[in-house]
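SEVERITY: medium
COMPONENT: batch folding queue
REPORTER: lab tech (J.R.)

DESCRIPTION
The queue accepted two submissions in a row. Attaching both inputs and their returned structure tokens so the on-call engineer can compare them side by side.

ATTACHMENT 1
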Amino acid sequence: MKIDLIKDELRQLFHILQKQDYYIYKLKEIASPYDAYFIREGNWKGVGIPVNDKKTSTKDFLANFENIKVCIQNKQTSNGEKICLLSLLTKKEISIDKFILLCIDFIIPGKNGENRVELLSNPQKWVNKWKELLGNKSESDMDYSYLGELIILNFLLENNKEIEITNQGSYDLESKEKNYEIKTTILRYTSIIEIHSQYQLKSLNNNPFELYFVRLEESKEGVSINKVLKSIENKNYKNIDKILKKIKEISSESREKNYNILEIRKYNIDNDFPKITIDCFKNNSIPKNIINIKYIIDLEGIKYENIQI
């Protein structure tokens, strides 16, 4: 197997198939049984290797970066063949040669297929090895904030099965009686939260409003997104589909990462709580040409209730 020939084949495919909306092409320079494919789907392009459930436990994987992702995909070739692939894809117009370097390492089977077996059994290990070149910052770096939302949802479901995940983009959860905003931090000694709009701490239906502040610490044991999700599923939560849709966007590594819950505070968002909403302005209207308001609140010194979970 000549690396230079594989590089040339990939380089030609990246250029020739740039304008194809959808294309899966079996690479000629990598022989069976270690097949590999070139993939083009809209703005995404890259390579994939077949996932055989009899040889690997890899059935669900996602690692998201700014313009690159590694994921499990069910695809169909031009001749109608259905195939499951572990894919390395990019949508960034980066140096083709740099990305081909990644692709080569991804698809080369190694002696007796040892590289292929290792990649399929532990794709996260490969991602970690190439993390710096993949873009350093994972899109999942802040996924602990979603864990905080799930922790509070799971807690509230103990007493109220009618909690809804809101799609309004203002606060996070709501019921017929209350609205809820959840803020999560992994900083041990500060209690600062960022408010992203003039509506985030505004009760749109005039119901009482509560803010939960969750402080987490990464650990070997504790709670994870997958563990809390299982608890929510066991409660037969009616909106579980909304959670599962969001979960698909979160990397496998983040879903399994464990945290200790250091503390949970509950604040009542009332007239004494510092906030900026449209009610703060004359005629309940934001001045002309101001589109959005973002601000930071230090929660220290504000009355709250400790919540034990």
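ATTACHMENT 2
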Amino acid sequence: MTPIEMEKRIVRYGDLAPCKTAFIDAHTPGSDQKENFTIIGGGVSESTDQHVHIRDTPGFNIGAAGQPPKCRNSLHIHTTAEVFFVLKGRWRFFWGRWGTAGEVVLEEGDIINIPTGIFRGFENIGIDYGMIMAILGGDDAGGGVTWAPQVIETAQEHGLILGENGRLYDTKQGKALPDSVSPMPVLTKDVLARIPEPSAQDLIPRHVARYNDLIAFADQASAKVIGSEGILQDKPGFEVDFLTRGSVSGENLTFKDTVVLMPMRGHWKVSWEGGSATLNPGDTCLLPENFEHVLTPAMSGEVSLYRVLSNDDPAGPTWIGS
């Protein structure tokens, strides 16, 4: 592989193309400044305006959300995995029918594996623009998003209608729901009553890992964060490792499945027969299966990186620890 070919597999943080109309709450006050990024795979956007950087889907999708302070993402449910780590800022994740069942605050580098089948939302509670990176289970991550009824109703009041086909129609732009498309139905009371409402005490210990703890775990070898042998023992259709300077020794690495590298801190060098590339925080690099490479820090000081690996596990559901 030539360096030019490799560069096509790297999405640079500075080149990320945002979409501000990706979801049903794009006009809802308090949520109308969100930026959605689809990095690898089709993602979960409901807008035809969403830019997709790399369309390959290695069994999962990679995306990101960028939000200014006090901006939130409205309550919704996924049927496949939704994992976030905080790249920039300070974020509050909350869940439950009205977002009051529980919450957790995540700092930079922290990671959360939100269980499938529960309402969840998140907001930037920092003082600057924040960014969270997302790993979504399955090749078709867009097939499993369900909004809380109040989100759909409020969106209609502000001119956005979600069709049963999963597409948004903006009446502020003169668009109307086609005669052949019905509005997205809201969940019934019976269905809502069956949706789990885990407490913070139930969810946090089994679904959240802290950056400082991962730094310690990865002192001499990569820390398995998500997977059957991970700190968060789940099988969401992919595995997540965490690496620091102490985790790598300069040996050749080869994985039978696709690998995605997502630096958190510092700069990392990927070398292979034919060239090398430097990855920076916020960059996303897609390595093909059976690709022999060497991964090393490219600078002194603190360096850390999340590595996502494909596997043969189904895409979900994820679980709530008991």
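NOTES FROM REPORTER
The CA atoms of residues 30 and 71 lie 5 Å apart.
No errors were logged for either attachment.
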